Amino acid sequence: MNKKKIILIVSLFVLLLTGLRIFWLDILNNTNQPYAVKGQIDLREWNFNDNHSITLDGEWEFYPYTWLVNEKPSNEATGKNLTYIHVPEGWDSSLQEGKVTPYGYGSYRLKVLVNPSDNSTYSIRVPSVRSSSEIYVNGRQLSKSGKIGENADTTIAKNIPYSASFEVNGHSEIEIIVQVANYKDSRNGGIIRSIKLGKEEVINRETQFSVTMQQMVALVFLIHAIYSIILYFVGNKDNRLLYFSLLTFSTMLYYLLGSDDKLVSYWFPINYDWGFKLVHLSMVGIGFSLLQGIKQWLPHYLRKPLFWFNILCGVASMLAIMLSTRYLITIQLFYILLFAIPMIITIFTMIRKSIKEIRSSIFLLLAIIAFVNNIAWDFLLLTSGIKVIFYPFDLIITMACLAILWFKDYAQVYADTKALAVKLQEADRLKDEFLANTSHELRNPLHGILNMSKAVLEREETILSDNSIKDLETVLSVGRRMSLMLNDLLDVMSLKENTTKLQLRSFSIHTIVSGVLDMLYFMREGKQVELINQIPKDFPKVMADENRVIQIVFNLLHNAVKYTNEGHVIIAGHVKNNMVEIVISDTGIGIDNETIQRIFEPYEQGTLSKAIIEGGFGLGLSISKRLVELHGGTLQARSVLGKGSEFTFTLPISNLSEQNDTEDGSSSLQTNKDFDVTTSSNHFNRSSTIQSIMQTNRPKLLVVDDDPVNLRVIETILSTEKYDLRTVTSGSKALEELACQKFDLVISDVMMPNMSGYELVRTIRKQLSITELPVLLLTARGQAQDIENGFLSGANDYVMKPVDPLELRSRVKALTDVKQSVQERLRMEAAWLQAQIHPHFLFNTLNAIMTLNEIDTERTNKLLEALSDFLRESFKFQNIDELVPLENELKLVQSYLYIQQERFGSRISATWELEVSSDIMIPSLTIQPLIENAIEHGILKRVRGGNIHIQILDYDTYIEITVSDNGIGMKEETKKQLLVRRQNKSTGVGLLNTDLRLKQHYGAGLQINSQPNQGTSISFKILKKKVDE
């Protein structure tokens, strides 16, 4: 828009405003009406049928300090006080000759000559008389405002416009008397506004029209005031909105109180003083709000005095409230300046701004022009004495231009916001893609960091300092946390793209919670936090995606543990409205009210220092909420800062028929969603043993799962292989089975009630290593933390659900082959041990025989016989893993002891304590290595030697064998390293091999007790098994 076009628009706008004002004056103002002269006005020739009223302006008779109506007391004869006064005009110079005063009372009289044949009803409109008045027509009082009196005490000031109607009734002359008293207003008293006369319907119409125009303007200003306040509270907290609201409200109040109709005085019971106070308060409000609203556009030299101007406005407001009308009028110029100066500054500032930015501020310029036009015309009409009905359109156009400007700005802001929203959406999409790609790219180096750090920690643990170990553990902890964050980012992308598919099935939430609590066992990081599962075993099952429910529960519990330093985390369940309600509560740091409103939004976290320290993207709760909603449930949070938090989510309950089937222990086996294998319907006994071609060399498998269907599926998958299977439905039953017999592999589900798969593995590893009894875990999730928890618990391998039959068979075969390889190694090691013993033993024994042959032939023969028995028993071992009768093992020991006693004489003595039959079966070469260890490393280390005590005690289900000596004993450090395999060292192989073979057979190895200089005791327990069994 060029300048010429702008000048043209402004010129046309000014012409439009001027034309509207002239048109208003032309249709509503009577310029040719008659005027009163010497107290009389002739209306006999005036046409009252042109729908116009006339003003009774001109010379009226005035009687100061006189009441003309007989009901009022008069001072003297009326003729003596007669004078003429121009109406409308104050009476200050007319009340007392030679003295100017606004205070007093008097009577106005006007004779109106009319056509006596006119029987119309007329009305008189009295707009403003200071400060109380009564009107009489032909001696009859028609109306009044306030109460007139001859002094201030008897006068009640009230200046409200009023109308009065009367009929001519054949009179040719109408006498109008207005009696006035003023002891309140120090300005000009008397009739100060033109009194109108016209037909009743015309006066009423003009009055109503004027009132309607004022109401319309007031409504426009009030609407702007209200929506400005609303925008302030619901939108941007911009103080200019409040200033604008104050401006529009003050302007509305100013016009409603200062106009001819004084509408506020009609609507509210406002007395004369408060009406005057409110006018001045509105003037202060207009001036204050104008400068505050344009403060940012003021020149710098005007901004400094603005502070003092604000103080002046405050002082003026207090004075307007406290001072009476008489004193307030004396400082009225002060209020006029507070009103006029800001208005002038605002007009020039807005003009300057609109000119500088004319293209964007054209409507602001038009609004200023309309406002200035209104002020100019009001001043012109006031000084010229032209009387006209209130003209509202300049103010309405001003507000309309401002509204258009604001809506235009709003439309521009909306368009900009829409464009920014598109850019933000695109940026958000690019961000998500970047994060997803970054997550994929970071996985490999992150896993490399974790693996290398873990390898260094394990390899160099014995030589690293404590601080270095802590640093490496910190690196691993941070790396695991980062791995969780990367997984969350990928989940967010999947949920945003709606690619997440749920695989619904019925399962026990109690089982899920038990497993997740075990997963968090390694993540408490030394915190004194108790994890409590209050969900009962018989809690109703849910219909959901097991994998996703594990994720939900893990995220919520992990969040609780993360922000709880000490105390407890409780998870409980209820049934409500056919939904399962799970409640997770903690005694952590809690969440403030502001944060709790946005914790479920992506990338949102609390502002507490704990959240900052822990780090993360803040995605866990958002993912959980989305997953719960995908199941048709809700996730809600409640919290008290410093006391803890409570998260509640709901899931659909499984139907009763499915639950009953499971509780009865039977099910119609169809395609199982966990294993994806079809089997035939069959009633399954949870404690039954699979009796299928029992053979000695078959690997024995123990399968643990709380779901009978899953057990049956695993049986079906492994039925084609040569395995002996035993199935149990809980971790405790599995431990009972392991205590009674030997197994080659344990296959366990992770999520089980009471004792999860993780806990079961940890319990097994307290007695058996990963080579002595491999464990294969079945897990519904393949997340890094699930797999890591499994391996940290001691599992050998894992298989993801749904199980692929080929994968399960392959992993089972691999683990059983490993177990057989370990057994073969132990056999070879025992054979090697035997081979190592014989040459050394034979060499020393032959030396002893040669020596004895020269001294004692009989002893030599007995020694040769003992050597022969020892070699005969040793060479019977065709398979070192086979069990042999206790009698054979004892013969070997006795021969060995006799030979050693012959060699070392009184330095070696032996005592026996046998309370068991000799036909008990035990692993071969288990007692002799203990005897050899006691001799070589115990009693022979002393000069005087010592005694070996062999004790074999019979208990109900097992026997206990103990070999003790009174030798030199050993330190605690030596005892700890005795049964640990050390590379490149052959010492202790006999004891280590014996310990491993005992664990393979019975689940428990050697028990060693020793104190320095107090001897050593080594014992082990074996289950009873006789030769004929």
In brief:
The chain is of the alpha+beta class and 1029 residues long. It has five domains: 35-205, Jelly Rolls (Sandwich), CATH 2.60.120.260; 209-414, no CATH class; 508-606 and 619-652, Heat Shock Protein 90, CATH 3.30.565; 684-803, Response regulator (Rossmann fold, 3-Layer(aba) Sandwich); 834-1023, Heat Shock Protein 90. The protein contains 28 helices and 32 strands.
Instruction: Kindly state the percentage of residues in helix.
Output: 40-55%
Any idea how many domains? 5
Poorly predicted runs: 72-77, 607-616, 656-696, 984-988
Largest sheet geometry: 7 strands, mixed
Total number of helical segments?
Answer: 28
Question: What is the distance, rounded to the nearest whole angstrom, between the alpha carbons of the first and last residues?
Answer: 111 Å
Shape: rod-shaped
Mean pLDDT: 79
Strand segment count: 32
**Rg from Cα:** 55 Å
SS-based class: alpha+beta
Please indicate the percent range of residues in DSSP E strands (runs of 2 or more). 15-25%
Notes on the protein architecture:
With 1029 residues, the protein is α+β, with helices and mostly antiparallel strands. Strands 1, 3, 4, 5, 8, 9 and 11 form a seven-stranded mixed beta sheet that branches. α1 runs parallel beside α10, α3 (239-258) packs antiparallel against α5 and α11 crosses α12 (466-496). The relative contact order is 0.04.
